[in-house]
Amino acid sequence: MSTLxxxxxxxxxxSLMILxxxxxxxxxxxxxxxxxxxxxxxxSAFAIYGIACGVPAARRALYFxxxxxxxxxxxxxxxxxxxxxxxxxxxxxxxxxxINVLGISxxxxxxxxxxxxxxxVVVGSITSIALALEERGHP
Amino acid sequence: xxxxxxxxxxxxxxxxxxxxAVAPLLTRVLGHNAAWVLAVVPAFIFLHFTGFLGSxxxxxxxxxxxxxxxxIGVEFSWxxxxxxxxxxxxxxxxxTLIILYSGxxxxxxxxxxxxxxxxxxxxxxxxxxxxxDSFLMLFVFWELTSIASFLLIGFDHSREAARRAxxxxxxxxxxxxLSLLAGLLVIAxxxxxxSLSSLLAAGEGLREAPVYFxxxxxxLGGAFTKSAQFPFHFWLPNAMEAPTPVSAYLHSATMVKAxxxxxxxxNPVMGETFAxxxxxxxxxGTTLIAGTLLALRQTDLKLMLAYTTVASLGLLIMLxxxxxxxxxxxxxxxxxxxxxxxxxxxxxxxxxxxETGTRDIRKLGxxxxxxxxxxxxxxxAAFSMGGLPPFFGFLAKxxxxxxxxxxxxxxxxxxxTAIAGNALMFAIGFAVGLKPFAGARGETPKHxxxxxxxxxxxxxxxxxxxxxxxxxxxxxxxxxSSPMASAVIGAPxxxxxxxxxxxxxxxxxxxxxxxLGIAFYATLERGRGTMxxxxAAIGxxxxxxxxxxxxxxxxxxxxxTRTVHNGRLDIYMTxxxxxxxxxxxVPMVSYGELPSMPVLxxxxxxxxxxxxxALIGVAAVVYARDRLTAIACLGIQxxxxxLLFMLLGAPDLSFTQFMVETLSVVILxxxxxxxxLYPADHRPASQKLLDFSVxxxxxxxxxxxxxxxxxxxxxxxxxxxxxxxxRVIAHGRNIVxxxxxxxxxxxxxxxxxxxxxxxxxxxxLVRVRVGKSREKAIQEEART
Lengths: 139, 784
Prior knowledge:
The structure holds 2 protein chains of 2 kinds.
Chain A: H1 4-27, H2 35-53, H3 55-62, H4 66-86, E1 96-101, E2 104-109, H5 110-137
Antiparallel strand pairs in A: 1-2
Chain B: H1 2-30, H2 34-38, H3 40-50, H4 53-57, E1 62-69, E2 74-80, H5 82-105, H6 112-131, H7 135-153, H8 160-191, H9 196-202, H10 205-208, H11 212-226, H12 235-238, H13 244-253, H14 258-270, H15 274-297, H16 301-322, H17 325-356, H18 372-386, H19 392-404, H20 409-433, H21 453-471, H22 473-489, H23 505-522, H24 524-538, H25 542-564, H26 569-590, H27 605-623, H28 627-647, H29 651-675, H30 685-711, H31 717-728, H32 735-743, H33 745-783
Helix pairs in contact in B: 1-3, 1-6, 3-5, 5-6, 5-13, 5-17, 5-21, 5-22, 6-7, 7-8, 8-11, 9-14, 11-14, 13-17, 14-16, 15-16, 15-20, 15-24, 16-17, 16-20, 17-18, 17-19, 17-21, 17-22, 18-20, 18-21, 19-20, 19-21, 19-23, 20-23, 21-22, 26-30, 27-28, 28-29, 32-33
């Protein structure tokens, strides 16, 4: 499967897809998208990279073990839910605030943290499965 | 003040566990001298409970507690009457001595800290068990003692015998614990109470309840396994694999008496029925005789003592079940006496083992000169065990005969049983307490000399208190025996017996017992030979039965697993899908809920086109030459469905469907390359037909149920709610995503946990294969 064309284009394709997945993740609250879909896109990006450039390269690019990413995502999602407890509202209630970045008001929320957690769990789990399977496909 | 006292009692209940937590650290710092510090804990508990003696003796039980799970009415509550208090004092008092003794016995052992920790844990559990008021608390502590006992028996876990004994004790006593739980639940359901104090206050109700017999059997199942009654006695001698302090503490003085405690506790509400007064004496009597006879056969000091413990427990159960007041008083006296002399004798046996290097009675002899204090303690304890005046054991024995010999033929039979048992125990008591010390010097691996103070303090104190309690019988009866007997009987009674012998039937029987005992002692060797021959002739025992049971269970489960879990994926899949098809179709047909013929709407031309693509995809899957093509074609069908979602206005769903389809095709293809299947499909025609029908049925089921679902009237209140509130409450316009991350956040949290766990599981599965192939690669490399 690792033809020259595929190998050459794969890194660009991967970076575009990851960028797109982040875009999908962030727009999810108001437009179609969200953590789950974004995670799937990013996972397929890594799967493509693994097929094209080999699993070791994909693992190096990821830097962390994909399962660790997944675990971190679960932790992040859980912790985002805990924030509301400090304000004495039920677990997982969305807390919103606005911050000023370079003169633009940006709404951020614990919900965003939660969605990012979902994104990371999906990326991590699917990528680790895909990479593990690819590993033996190319002995 | 009351609140203070309540708090202090609570503290005494948790203190052993706290001490267990710091014990390893303390032992690392102080070495074996940590025993002196740790012994302060039980000593403090002992003193705290002594403070209750006056109040309990005057007939006022101490009760207290805190709510534990108030929503279902579970309390962490305690109830201290004469019975619980005596037990609590025995546990903490003997516990103090045992901790000190362990300091000497396990001196320099690399895991001495761990040992202290376990034994303190046990102490806390046992303490909780005897003071517990609520049924749940009783059960929890009951099982905790089993677990602590498991840890302690298996302390020397590098030996297989210790591991087996630990497991055996755990299985037997925990099975009994479950039986007890069931019994308590039955009692709770029958009487509507869930605490011992209210059960005792309720009085007659339980005896007349129709479930009385079932409750009795279940509770006795717990009591008999814990207190090693025949035929569940086998775990107790095996438990002698534990270090000697454990044998002295758990397996003679305290834990094995938990069953007796339970029976005594329930005597006022469950006793005095025909079943009670038959089952208990029969099992108790059998245990008494079997225990003593088996003890004759042994040559190991600890095993001899273990079997007499079994016998003593039988005697206690027999006396409690006999039903007369005097018999109960006898049981109470004997219980206290036994805890003291048996604890002492075990510690003596341990000290002998520690100093001479052997516990074999045939090799031991004449070490009395070298170990005078131990010798004195041993003889005092043996006198008490033999029931000679003026020791506490004598009081117990007099009372036993006074209680049993009263009248009926049943009583005569039990008296004969008791005489035989007691005479044999007399012989064995002296065999352990006297024989190793007197006579000619035997050859022992080590040269014996008196052990350190930690080793002789415990037995000496226990043996001496057996004498003191008897000499000051007025005091000990007032504070201990009478309140305890009153609690067991359920009405105030006065124990009056003293050490001064009175002429009468009991004294005659005692004399007979002693005479018989001396005769048995003199012919111990021959008795041992005879018993060995008899047991060899029988050949089979409950101990081997246990092994057969375990092996049988394993074989049975292996057979079931082989049948159900045969490792063939195609069979799993077929079964799963057949069940799915049945679940979908059968209820729909049998309840007449089939959908009506749908009205076909006018579809646009591009909608037709998408449907056609989906159909082509499915057809391609069926007709594909090789598997990889089939998988890719499955993707065509999935993409077509995703397109449909898009056209029908569900972009999120469609988006996800695209991604899921893509990834599943990729992952399926990757799996295919790993499985090394034939590229083409080689199923025989019959198999193909079966698979075809199963999949068509499943498809039909889904088709019909979805059709039926859209034909039911739609309740829009939820979607209206989400549409109205997603912007207002959750600040998001994308309702689907708002539901996922906000309204139903907890569901999502659960789902992503599942995703991650599934990922881990798959990773593990894949890794197993990779690991093997790597090993092979390494081997191949090594060869070349």
